[in-house]
Request: fold
Amino acid sequence: MLHASALYADRPEVEAWQRDTKANARLTGATRTLLGRYRRLPGIDGRNGAVRGHMERAAINTPIQGGAADIMTLAMIKLHKSEKLREMGFKMLLQVRARRARQAQPGGLTASAWS
Reply:
């Protein structure tokens, strides 16, 4: 099992980002996603260690997982608005969390190059 200290030793910028993100969340009481969606973190500066720990983990998780959702949203909008992709037969079938199913005609994926 990989321990967090091994990750931090190899990638100290990850630990620094997490430390800075939690510190900023304590100052503002919130965190944001890549596109600026806002999540309040009540209790992040409180005395209840369980609540504080949960909010610190949320402060780190929200920019990552929320950012991935932001990117997926932009991709779905682009797919919906792209006349070229529609002409090639692409259409949204299903979106569940940060995953989506797409359908295209045979050979369409290569030709589209994800336009």
Remarks:
- The CA atoms of residues 9 and 94 lie 40 Å apart.
